[in-house]
Amino acid sequence: PTRGETILEVKDVTRRFGGLVANNNMNFSVKAGEILALIGPNGAGKSTMFNQISGVDTPTSGEIIFTGKAVAGHDSREIARLGMSRSFQHVRLLPRMSVLENVAIGTHLRGSTGVFPAAWRLDRKEEERLLAEAARQIRRVGLEAHMHDEAGSLALGQQRIVEIARALAADPCLLLLDEPAAGLRFKEKEALGELLKKLKAEGVAILLVEHDMDFVMGLVDRIVVMEFGEKIAEGLPEEIQQNERVLAAYLGG
Ligand code: ADP
Ligand code: MG
């Protein structure tokens, strides 16, 4: 997709769990090469939205259009093949395996829900292709010096970046990140922010859920704010920072 073109459209999406409305008539879109943050208090419905976009969950009603195709309720692997990749809130690396192996396995399992298969048998050609692709993504995120280190030996900030390298396999045009800065030190957040800016410059769109407002404000192009399943505001970081409804939601008013 070319920069500025809409690649993801969430249209009138509602998700009910019994009597609870986790997402109520949500509307927003993401453009190619844009960084958009989805923010809001705990329980606002952000993860539910992510799950529906990535095909882990199905809307009760509404449409999700990704690269021109209606994907709501479609299989997560099929959506991944269209060019969408997600990371999860908690690190899901295999700590005793190398960074390279972790990224290569992720490449192999792309779009599956992360269950390590009993038999990871590949022919040699396929294995070499996966390792080469993994090495390419590790260089892309700047972790080549740690390619052969055990993933569990890296600092948390680097492990998050390994997960991003894994999500980048096969060059998605949209990356979904669930709280990528959570628990990171200041310097690690800076490094993560720089990486996300670099990916954006390469044309990757990023949709992130994040609680760290300092991190969000210095990084993203636009913000969508949710409360009780609804969109209560949308705009530029500086607009959102001054929005009274947003301030009230965050101050518990
Ligand atoms: P957030 O990620 O913004 O903290 P969630 O999307 O996780 O919010 O949750 C929104 C609301 O939906 C919460 O009240 C939560 O308890 C509820 N919810 C989420 N998933 C389920 C589910 N599978 N079954 C029932 N209720 C759920
Ligand atoms: Mg959540």
Automatic annotation (TrEMBL):
Signal peptide: none annotated. It is found in: Cell membrane. Coiled coil: none annotated. Keywords: ATP-binding, Cell membrane, Membrane, Nucleotide-binding, Transmembrane, Transmembrane helix, Transport. It comes from the Bacteria. Residues 8-253 form the ABC transporter domain. This is Branched-chain amino acid ABC transporter. The chain holds residues 362 to 614 of 616 of the full protein.
